[in-house]
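Sample intake sheet
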Amino acid sequence: MGNEARRAAVAALIRLAESPDYRDRADAGCSLATFAEMPEARGPLLGLVLDADDTFITRATAEALLRRQDSAGLEVVATALAAADPNHVEWIHTAVLDVFGVFSRDRDAAVRECEVLDSDEQTRCGLDQLTTMLVGITPILHPAQND
């Protein structure tokens, strides 16, 4: 997909994110997470993670961002964490558990990524919170040990 088509998709998803219907906003968050590396998607994604009306949107968007398992998704979630109220923090934490609670290698990779992300002071605070959440997880599956 060319840059112009990607921008058009993001613009359409941003319009959907402004819908009064929570289902539209949740769908927009999940789909917009695919474009998290694009600067124009960042603000709307933060707004969806911190949705004032429905924490379902918070959880769905945060989970989609975390499932990217890359710096773009982790950074948006961390930035949201830095500004989140306790209720939103709880739902973001639930998304973190859902995404990183199975494979230790995925959790460990996310911790390493959070440690090397270069960001502003506010996002750094959120990255510290996210790292604490990740380190607190005991994943179900670990790499096989060679005996």
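Comment: Helices lie at 3-17, 22-32, 39-49, 55-67, 71-83, 86-100, 104-116, 121-135. The first helix runs from residue 3 to 17.
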